[in-house]
Amino acid sequence: MGSTGATGNALLHSLLTLGTPVRALTRTPHKPIPGITGPHRPPVEVQYADATDHHSLRTAFKGAGQLFLAMANSPAQVALETRVIDIAAHTGIGHIVKISAPAAEPDSPVAISRGHHAVEEHLRASGLTHTILRPHAFMQNLLRLAPAVARGIILGTTGDAPFNYIDCRDIGDVAAAALTSPGIAGGTYTLTGHEAVSYPELASRLAILTGNPIRYVRLTRDELRDNLIHNAHMPTWLADHVTEIQQLAIARPETPNTTVADILGRPPRTLDAFLHEQHTHFLR
């Protein structure tokens, strides 16, 4: 599930590279899946599935042995993911790899993380073999900063507090390993890139990369929340989530780990390499 999302799409690429049979589930099977479907691509089984549609899930899961579960964060996420897990258990799925979140704890200061904890607990109670991946901030989400960067600013509340960033392609590779390597399945893994970088440092790197002056502007929590709602047009729950994540980075300074390298036998992709690859998005 999540074949059109950043991590699910990366996983599809990884599994196809390994030659692993895979069924891509999507709510829009009539639309091409980025980088997967189309001319000169290996055939991929694509099937309709919607977490709100019980029948579609039962049909989509039929004959499958494992499930990758990644859904967009939302207020309905707990209800939808627990439903998916229940239907998977009843249709013969034996192993679920779930994308979760750091600080997935019952008393987490981040509401979305509390939701992930609830889903993790439901997954444990299901009796299914399960692998939980807890990636930190996606490098791909930095592209959302591009409009502000093009104006020469990065807004945030974190000051010099560092963020762990990880490339979604590394998450996909780890998920593929969990689905194809029995020795990895069944664990809970926190995933980071090789370094943690603050917003001021990110602004400096982007300024060098683009040749344009870019400065970090520190806001209060309320100022950032209001900006996200009124200028970025985020729904309130998402603006709350962004500000909660930033406050967590201040309260719990983030440090990188070696989990990606330990599992894949190679270092994770670097932030600098990602920014260089995507640099045109940040140009004025």
Question: Mind explaining what this structure looks like?
Answer:
With 284 residues, this protein is an alpha/beta fold. The two termini are 36 Å apart. Helix 3 (77-90) links the parallel strand 3 and strand 4. A four-stranded parallel beta sheet has the order 3-4-5-9, with helices on both faces. It has a three-stranded mixed beta sheet with strand order 6-8-10. Helix 3 (77-90) packs parallel to helix 4 and helix 8 (221-230) runs antiparallel to helix 9 (236-251). It has helices at residues 6-18, 54-61, 77-90, 111-125, 146-150, 168-180, 199-210, 221-230, 236-251, 259-264, 271-277; strands at residues 23-26, 45-48, 66-69, 95-99, 129-135, 137-138, 153-156, 163-166, 188-191, 196-197, 215-218. It is globular and about 55 Å long.
Helix content: 40-55%
Morphology: globular
Mean pLDDT across all amino acids: 95
| Beta-strand segment tally | 11
What is the number of helices? 11
What assembly state would you assign to the polypeptide chains in this entry?
single chain
Distance between the termini: 36 Å
Strand-residue fraction?
A: 15-25%
**In terms of structural class, how would the helical and strand content be classed?**
alpha/beta
Radius of gyration: 19 Å
Please provide the ordered H/E string of secondary-structure elements.
HEEHEHEHEEHEEHEEHEHHHH
Poorly predicted ranges: none
- Order of strands, main sheet, comes to 3-4-5-9
For the biggest sheet, the summary is: 4 strands, parallel
Question: Briefly, what is this?
Answer:
The protein is an alpha/beta fold and 284 residues long. It has helices spanning 6-18, 54-61, 77-90, 111-125, 146-150, 168-180, 199-210, 221-230, 236-251, 259-264, 271-277; strands at 23-26, 45-48, 66-69, 95-99, 129-135, 137-138, 153-156, 163-166, 188-191, 196-197, 215-218. It contains 11 helices and 11 strands.
